[in-house]
């Protein structure tokens, strides 16, 4: 694992930028232009090609517009939107991101991004039709269609249909009166057969149909894996297999009946629910425990579920919660679940520490892996509370994207999740292609890194209004493989941002990045393209006795490296952070920096302390330097409350953000 932990060195003055940098404001975005070789007008003129509307999610819309020409990269796409038929004034969206020619190379992957624009319209209403207008502009001229106007609808939350058959399932320990029709276990109810024990467990004579609802009544459902006539009809391997197909209008629902907690105990089964062959299934209100992987939802190049909804469920003592790595999996809704893994609950240390010779406690074993991992388009992972896994949420590190549009990992939403105590990362955007939206998540205690992208295949990958606290070994963002399109706005990182390798085409604005006085620099800018941007961010340099003198590290697009003591010296040499500021912890109402495991010892040399989100206040001090210090970004901070947007995740005076499961013990630890 590469990290930008640089020794002390004198500032090397770079003349590369002198006389060659010109900041320009185009569509609300600062773009750094370099002197370019002579190009013909035909090469510079942009021509719009294929326009793609990605699968909509509940609250966001994604788009792609392929182009030819624009060799000097000065074309833009203006975005406007409104509710269809409303006649309202058009709202301004973020301009689409210009992508193309960025190279990605890692682990045998050799991929170059196509020339195109991509981007999202954010935070719109579910189940609503919108009009969207995209205007392609270029000072050198536009050939062909310059304006696209489309109608597109956000998704509605799946819900049970009316008029479907209802089947009842009771625990083997239930002794009261039973509603009819009832079945001895979920396998029998799903297949419509009774007394199918032993060899007969695959008999399914009246399989559930679209619109059917299976109501699981309160009690314990624990298969005895080696019991041949087991009540639950899951002998030997302990796995429930689901293969039916619902529809969008008439999904198949498996839910708690409401008369007590429903507990599916896997009794050590490697896989509890195999749903790879399903379409349009809803699982809700259930508890799962003591299993390796609870929902096996897809395997690469094999099979996978589509339109799977899992909500208001609880996972306890599990190796993995919900996993698909099938490119054809689409439109999952994973919402308002509690997922608790098997990893260490009392101390923080990472998987790589032993390898790097940092601690004598050994590598953290993989007792649990992912809480949630997905691939394919259109997934929503929202308001989940997750603790004690290797990684909380991830997009599969799938490799080179498939050629077929419907198999690409695009338009994926990960928002408002509450993440506590991970061995590696809170969230991994790895394997995502376009319009990966990681927004309003709170992560406290991750040993290796906060959010990973290694790599993303073009982007944009939006990291917006996330809070990260206590990430002692790696830092905020882990970037490998030449990740293009990283767009980080309004994040609060109580950790350094200096880990990874070089990458192109990035945008950092309105973030807070606060060092915790470790022996590292607070920020690195390893940008390989002149059109990467970092501005209007607030930094707190490290001040510990082991902290290096040069707190800011810059790699120029020509490969030159320099270290800088101050933000002002970085700006003078690079043109970056012309409006950036330095801050300290007094920008918060009441927030202390995380304390290292043992003062005066190398970072990560012992298991670290564990902090609790409910004890931490990330609100800004209304009189602090971070207030009104940002820049306006349409469709991101339209509702700022002061003279200008505040830096960081929480705008002063804005409504409280709900992290994790809604409506259940808000403000209390879910992990105790």
Structure, described:
By secondary structure, this protein is mainly β. Among the domains are: 46-154, Immunoglobulin-like; 156-244 and 251-284, no CATH class. It has a 21-stranded mixed β-sheet that branches. Strands 15-14-16-19-21-24-26-29-32-35-38-41-44-47 form a 14-stranded parallel β-sheet. The model is unreliable at 1-37 (pLDDT under 50). This is Parallel beta helix pectate lyase-like protein. Keywords: Membrane, Transmembrane, Transmembrane helix. The chain crosses the membrane at residues 21-39.
Number of β-strand runs: 51
Structural class: mainly beta
Q: Uncertain regions: pLDDT < 50 for 5+ in a row?
A: 1-37
What is the approximate shape?
globular
Please compute the radius of gyration using only Cα atoms: 26 Å
Amount of helix: under 10%
Q: Which terms would index this structure?
A:
Immunoglobulin-like; disordered N terminus; single chain; 672 residues; 14-stranded parallel beta sheet; 21-stranded mixed beta sheet
Write a brief structural summary.
This protein is mainly beta and 672 residues long. The strands form seven sheets. The chain has a 21-stranded mixed β-sheet that branches. The chain has a 14-stranded parallel β-sheet with strand order 15-14-16-19-21-24-26-29-32-35-38-41-44-47. Strands 7-10-4-3-12 form a five-stranded mixed β-sheet. It starts with 21 loop residues before the first strand and ends in a 90-residue tail after the last strand.
